[in-house]
Amino acid sequence: MEYSIIGDDLQFVKVLMGDGESIYGEGGHLLYKTPTVNLTAKATGGILSGLKRAVTGATFFVLELAGPGEAAFAGSTPGKIIQIQLGDGESVLAEHGSFLFAENWVKYDASLARLSAGIFGGEGLFLAKFIGPGNLFLHGTGHVYMMQLGDGEEVEVEAGHLLAFDEGMQYGVKRTGGLRTMFLGGEGIFFVNIRGPGRVWIRSISLAALAAALSRDMPCPASCRSGQEIRETREPGVTFRI
Length: 242
Fold this sequence. Notes:
It is built from four helices and 21 strands. The protein is mainly beta. The chain has one domain (2-210): Mitochondrial biogenesis AIM24 (Double-stranded beta-helix). The chain starts with a strand and ends with a strand.
């Protein structure tokens, strides 16, 4: 199986499968496939895993693509695609919307986050969980930076910028300074604190920040203009707007 990540800030990943080779991925991220690639919807990992994935905001079913042939996947926003090679039994936890596709050997599940991190960190209670062996492809908005933490090393990541991290790392939430900093500093109230050893993937733009930036430049429909009342009077062939 061969992979190629193409592009700069609007990337997609192309996979070339041989006869008998297969992958699975989120249907909403599939760009194209060649006619020889067989496409099937399945609940990978069984019904229980499918239900847990649905709780994370992901889909119950995934698409299985079997070769020979070519297919490509891409994210929904400008950003970077990363390839994570998982060893046998090695696992990572990831933001549920970042998943593109994985080799069929990789198990796709969900993990219950610590209650404090789930509620106060601004993320859902569940994270997507991927268990090796095999290759996993994730998409992060903006640029994606991987930090390798040594034993006992820590990093504090604003929750919306946390893309993925190795399972088994200690993590929780930490308050961002005193009350004045929390409420006037322009940041989220809590950061996710992660302790090594292990890898942490951070995206430079959170989905919330991207949505807020785009919404400022979106034209406001007439119905949302504050203080402006719109009434229509219709006569034959004439419409008056006040």
